[in-house]
Amino acid sequence: MTATVRVLSQSARLGIDDFGSVYTWKSWLAGWLLRMLAQVAFFASIGLLIGSRAEIGYLLVGNAVVLVCLEATIVVISVSVERFQGTLPLFAASPASPMLVYLGRGLHWMATGLATSMVTLTLLPPLFGLRPSLLRVLACLPVLVVIAVSSYCYGSFLASLVARFPQFNWLALNVGYLAVMTVAGVNVPVEFWPGPVQALANLLPVTHGLLAVRQLLDGSGLAAVAPQVGVEVLLGAGWLAASWLSYRRFFRRARATGSFDVG
What pTM was computed for the model? Predict the structure, then answer.
């Protein structure tokens, strides 16, 4: 257990150092955070065009919450960088589990995603004439943590596929995130889609956690949203297991063939 924690912490520290080489706190606030606020404001403005206060709230909350998923899935890029830098053979030869290294590689994206989402949920609603209780917004934080973890596990699975085909890293990230943004109840209810698409939505992260956030902001208690949060936890565990198995298969075949050019 101590070795596992050490590997994860060192990998996470490497990810934080990489993040610090790209962003300062000023560039993150004025660049990334401002961009995310503008993105959510754009979708909320559709509600203004429709003239529906309910639609404004629906779009604003959905797009604010899904930011957690957007940032968590950036782990796809963090992992693909290792392939381009030629570090995979070193991981394969290391006594430590390469899967632990990759799982720890982008943990910081969950923290920044939570910060972005919470800031958005706090700052934007008053600009659109909405006045959610600050206590209600704070009550959403534990649910957002669960969404962040399940989204990270989902992103880690995508990253395990991209480890085989690193040239598709941005494609995998964008398709993976946009699939969630499209069908997980962010801009339209899940029930809007045909049955097969609804089935897909119920397997993706965010879908159930977002419903729990909406219920909390509408006045429901924690006990009422517990079933949705529980499903989100189970989905995260499923994506984590899929990620672990995918990485294990990848490294097993790579070691057997002596090449990382394997599918």
Answer: 0.91
- Residue 150's domain comprises 2-257
Comparing 225 with 262, which gets the higher pLDDT?
Answer: 225
262 within some domain: no
pLDDT tens digits for range 64-78? 999 999 999 998 887
Residue 61 included in any domain: yes
15 occurs within a structural domain:
yes
Structural domain includes residue 263: no
Taking only the tens place, the pLDDT of each residue in 129-149 is 898 888 999 999 999 999 999
SS (H, E, C) the chain: CHHHHHHHHHHHHHHHHHHHHHCCHHHHHHHHHHHHHHHHHHHHHHHHHHCCHHHHHHHHHHHHHHHHHHHHCCHHHHHHHHHHHCCHHHHHHCCCCHHHHHHHCCHHHHHHHHHHHHHHHHHHHHHCCCCCCHHHHHHCHHHHHHHHHHHHHHHHHHHHHHCCCHHHHHHHHHHHHHHHHHHCCCCCCHHHCCHHHHHHHCCCCCHHHHHHHHHHHCCCCHHHHHHHHHHHHHHHHHHHHHHHHHHHHHHHHHHHHCCCCCC
Number of structural domains in the chain:
1
